[in-house]
UniProtKB/TrEMBL annotation, chain A:
Protein's name in the database: Protein-arginine kinase
Species annotation: Lysinibacillus alkalisoli
UniProt cross-references to Pfam families, sorted A to Z: ATP-gua_Ptrans
InterPro entries: Arg_Kinase (IPR023660), ATP-guanido_PTrfase (IPR000749), ATP-guanido_PTrfase_AS (IPR022415), ATP-guanido_PTrfase_cat (IPR022414), Gln_synth/guanido_kin_cat_dom (IPR014746)
HAMAP family associated with the record: Prot_Arg_kinase (MF_00602)
GO biological process, one term: phosphocreatine biosynthetic process
MF (Gene Ontology): ATP binding; creatine kinase activity; protein arginine kinase activity
Automatic annotation (TrEMBL), chain B:
Record-linked SUPFAM superfamilies: C-terminal UvrC-binding domain of UvrB
Domain UVR: 125-160
Gene3D superfamilies referenced in this protein's UniProt entry, alphabetically: UVR domain
Annotated protein name in UniProt: UvrB/UvrC protein
A GO MF label: copper ion binding
Length: 350, 165
């Protein structure tokens, strides 16, 4: 067992959502989340401290044998900045970050995390690089099956798994894929696509989920419906929609190259110029330029290792910046530090 | 006594209100039918064997109380936060669920995965439902002996489930 500080040092360069992806990989990562609750307890928000501990103990006990390698951290032991990094790594939700208590179980390779006493007693989450809905679901489902051997879930045969919020009732499944869609954004087609997807029961959000903005043309696409459709249907429908969006993005990229190749190349190299020379970089500016660079690499307009871009995307985030600098920084100082880190990372790669 | 609504015809029906005023109201048959359409079957014959059996079909649904007995959440609190207090809230506010779920969900019936412990119970319940349907058909076809056999089979299965099913 190690502390959260040791864990974050060990996993500093690890971000499953930004692993070395193959060129043209528009689908950056896949996330599966299952919401579950323990029968005969009120939902977390209304639990007593004693009841919270009981549930946390039950969950740890149920997972102990099968998942021995899980790191366990009590939320109360995690400092605000470290929580911020965990959100940026998609290991906890922004909602969990703000809570006073709760438990976090996370695998060493960061492909699996379980939040205990978030909005629901259990939020089982599995992450993977690229588009891997089925495989990732199976991993989450395995955790679910291990848990149900020892924990009695709040389940109703008509309504399925009962959750605190009725938007999760039924399967409790939220499947999401993170997509990098610069060409669709540049051609102003994201709004129309988002509206069309909504009619198909698919929601488009910013990179940290509910209520977050899109940063660097990265979007999170996920299923809205959890009741009345089976897991298989939900995953198949999302897969189909995601594939269509990827196809549209590729078409939009081709059209951009065809109609304005020089302008595209100009944008990519301007981005490289800013990122390798700027002394002050806001997260918006960094994200926008890193997105252009990523697009340039995908389209073979520039020869740069994608790994360097991914490293920049990871280290430019405010939580990450401050945590590894060891202090809370005012926004101005963050922008200076961000510019320095991005500059160094890219100059090494060139 | 005259009907308190039309003040013309003789009051023959008493409506007792349990939840609001707690008062009794006295109406004539016509006004009662208009005001409380759910009591429209008042003129039927005394209960027949058919009704007795069909009424047995399913336990009567209780009307939705305003507060969850388990966690104390009120419906007003739910509408304010959008979150239920405990799993039992779903049963407490069952009558409101269609209104909540229809706009956001595909259907009101779960069709996905279920815990393995539930699968067995679920298959028994399915079987009971099937028996009840068959029983209803038997009653309609006036095969009362068959209906009684089916009822016994269903009861047998129910005892396996235990509890208050």
């Amino acid at each position: 067992m190690s502390s959260i500080e040791e864990f974050l040092q060990r996993t500093r360069d690890r971000d499953i959502t930004l692993a070395d992806t193959t060129p043209n990989s528009i689908a950056m990562s896949t996330r599966i989340r299952l919401a579950r609750n323990v029968a005969d307890y009120r939902f977390p928000k209304w639990l007593t401290e004693q009841e919270e501990l009981e549930i946390e103990r039950q969950v740890r006990h149920a997972l102990m044998d099968t998942y021995q390698e899980l790191n366990h951290f009590a939320l109360s032991d995690i400092a605000p900045l470290a929580r911020h990094v965990l959100v940026e790594k998609h290991l906890i939700s922004p909602h969990f970050m703000k809570q006073k208590s709760g438990d976090l179980l996370v695998s060493e390779d960061e492909t699996m995390s379980i939040m205990v006493n978030e909005e629901d007693h259990l939020r089982i989450q599995c992450l993977a690089t690229g588009l891997q809905l089925q495989e990732t679901y199976e991993r989450a489902s395995k955790v679910d099956q291990v848990l149900e051997q020892q924990v009695t879930y709040a389940f109703d045969e008509k309504l399925g798994y009962l959750t605190s919020c009725p938007t999760n009732v039924g399967t409790g499944l939220r499947a999401s894929v993170m997509l990098h869609l610069p060409a669709l954004t540049m051609t102003n087609r994201m709004n129309i696509i988002a509206q069309t997807m909504l009619r198909l029961g698919i929601v488009v959000r910013g990179i940290y989920g509910e209520g977050s903005n899109s940063l660097g043309n990265i979007y999170q696409v996920s299923n809205q419906v959890t009741l009345g459709k089976s897991e298989v249907t939900i995953l198949t429908e999302l897969q189909e929609v995601v594939e269509k969006v990827i196809e549209s993005e590729l078409q939009a990229r081709q059209a951009l190259v065809k109609n304005s190749a020089l302008m595209m190349e100009d944008q990519v190299y301007r981005a490289l110029g800013v990122l390798t020379h700027a002394r002050i970089l806001t997260s918006d500016e960094a994200a926008t330029n890193l997105s252009r660079l990523r697009l340039g690499i995908d389209m073979k307009l520039i020869d740069l290792p994608i790994k360097a871009v991914n490293q920049c995307i990871s280290c430019m985030q405010p939580g990450f910046l401050q945590y590894y600098d060891g202090q809370t920084l005012p926004a101005n100082d963050r922008d200076i530090l961000r510019a320095k880190l991005v500059r160094e990372t890219l100059q090494q790669a060139i | 006594m005259l009907c308190e609504h039309c003040q013309q015809r003789e009051a023959v029906i008493t409506i007792s209100q349990k939840y609001q005023s707690g008062q009794d109201h006295h109406y004539c048959e016509i006004c009662a039918n208009q005001l409380y359409p759910f009591t429209a079957q008042i003129k039927k014959e005394p209960i027949s064997i058919q009704q007795l059996l069909t009424n047995w079909q399913a336990p009567k649904e209780r009307t939705s109380p305003k507060t969850c007995e388990t966690c104390g959440m009120t419906y007003a609190q739910f509408t304010h936060t959008g979150r239920f207090g405990c799993p039992k809230c779903y049963a407490t506010f069952a009558s409101q669920l269609p209104k909540i779920l229809r706009p956001i969900q595909a259907d009101l019936q779960h069709v996905g995965h279920m815990p393995s412990a539930m699968k067995n119970e679920y298959s028994i319940k399915k079987k009971i439902e099937e028996l009840r349907n068959k029983m209803q058909t038997a009653v309609q076809e006036e095969r009362f002996e068959d209906a009684a056999t089916l009822r016994d089979e269903a009861r047998e299965l129910e005892s396996q489930l235990g509890g208050d099913y």
